Amino acid sequence: MDNSRGHADKNKIIENILNTYDGDSGINFIDVTNLPVREKIIEVLDMLIELIFPGYTGKVTVTKENVKSVTADIIGNVTTTLERQIELALRHRCRLKDCPTCDCEKMGVKLTGDLLETMPRIREMLKLDVQAAFDGDPAAQSFEEIIISYPCIVAIAVHRIAHELYLMMVPLIPRIMSEFAHARTGIDIHPGAKIGERFFIDHGTGVVIGETTVIGNNVKLYQGVTLGAMSFAKDKRGRIIKGGKRHPTIEDNVTIYAEATILGDIVIGKDAVIGANAWIGKSIPSGVTVMTRKPESLYKHHDKKKHHKKDH
Question: Are residues 177 and 119 in the same domain?
Answer without folding.
Answer: yes
